[in-house]
């Protein structure tokens, strides 16, 4: 089996995420489905890594395993010196999904505040955190709006800063920019990357869009058809901060061709 690492060297010391020999089998009464097989992954702290692959290759399953939501059938997952389940219980993960999943009866700022309420953070302290985060994504002045009063792009911004409100170490993002028009999507790319540069979280990003993965990431891990294995990791050597004009550059197009050739 191909064992493709996301970082150089073989030592686990100092790695933010280490996955060894992970496989996932879903069982039903009638049959079994091998979703993932022999996954080896290492991610350094502060890296932005995307997983790209065909529909049904196990990208979301892998994200859930990293986040301690699913337990793999075999293999080991370590988040620093903790298991994935321990890391989840210690609130080391912020989850961002395709659907913003905002509570419709709460205002934007109250949606952002929700994790802090669960953690019993004082309101005056949580107000400062939430207001600053909303400001950083261009929603200063929209805190009192309810979700139905916000565009889809604005709703997703609220979901992003809600995931950041309690200062997790790692962001797990499952196609968060899907179902957005191109203009809104590109604006969100730039807003999120600006926020990422400030906070430098480790990001695991799942997408089926090759251009998106290349534009956002330090590295792109290409998964095979089911059962999903990592076929190759492509290091993206585009300068940061990223600019939208890069999407039309010769080097960017070469990366697209390279990833497509691996799929």
Provide an overview of this structure.
- It is built from 8 helices and 10 strands.
- The model has no long low-confidence stretch (mean pLDDT 93).
- A 6-stranded mixed sheet has the order 6-7-8-3-9-10, sandwiched between helices.
- The chain folds into 2 domains: 163 residues, Rossmann fold (3-Layer(aba) Sandwich), CATH 3.40.50; 70 residues, no CATH class.
- It has 263 residues and is of the alpha/beta class.
Keywords for this entry:
263 residues; alpha/beta; Rossmann fold; globular
Compact description:
By secondary structure, the protein is α/β, with parallel strands linked by helices. The chain has 8 helices and 10 strands. The mean pLDDT is 93.
List the helices and strands and how they pair.
Elements: E1 15-27, E2 32-44, E3 48-52, H1 59-66, E4 74-79, E5 82-83, H2 84-89, E6 93-96, H3 108-118, H4 123-136, H5 152-164, E7 170-174, H6 182-199, E8 202-207, H7 210-216, E9 219-223, E10 230-235, H8 250-262
Parallel strand pairs: 3-8, 3-9, 6-7, 7-8
Antiparallel strand pairs: 1-2, 1-4, 4-5, 9-10
């Amino acid at each position: 089996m191909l064992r493709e690492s996301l970082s150089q060297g073989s030592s686990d010391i100092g790695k933010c995420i280490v996955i060894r020999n992970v496989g996932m089998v879903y069982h039903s009464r009638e049959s079994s489905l091998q979703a993932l097989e022999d996954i080896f992954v290492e991610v350094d702290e502060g890296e932005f890594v995307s997983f790209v692959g065909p529909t049904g290759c196990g990208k979301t399953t892998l994200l859930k395993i990293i986040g301690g939501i699913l337990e793999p059938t075999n293999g080991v997952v370590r988040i620093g010196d903790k298991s994935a389940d321990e890391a989840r219980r210690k609130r080391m993960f912020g989850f961002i999904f395709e659907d913003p999943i905002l509570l419709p009866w709460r205002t934007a700022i109250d949606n952002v505040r929700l994790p802090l309420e669960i953690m019993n953070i004082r309101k005056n302290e949580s107000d400062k955190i939430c207001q600053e985060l909303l400001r950083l994504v261009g929603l200063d002045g929209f805190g009192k709006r309810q979700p139905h009063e916000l565009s889809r792009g604005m709703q997703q911004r609220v979901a992003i800063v809600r995931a950041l409100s309690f200062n997790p170490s790692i962001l797990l993002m499952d196609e968060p920019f899907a179902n957005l028009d191109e203009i809104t999507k590109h604006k969100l790319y730039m807003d999120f990357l600006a926020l990422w540069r400030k906070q430098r979280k480790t990001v695991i990003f799942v997408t089926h869009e090759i251009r998106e993965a290349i534009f956002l990431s330090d590295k792109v891990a290409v998964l095979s058809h089911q059962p999903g294995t990592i076929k190759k990791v492509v290091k993206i050597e585009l300068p940061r901060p990223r600019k939208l004009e890069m999407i039309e550059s010769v080097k960017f197009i070469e990366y697209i061709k390279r990833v497509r050739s691996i799929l």
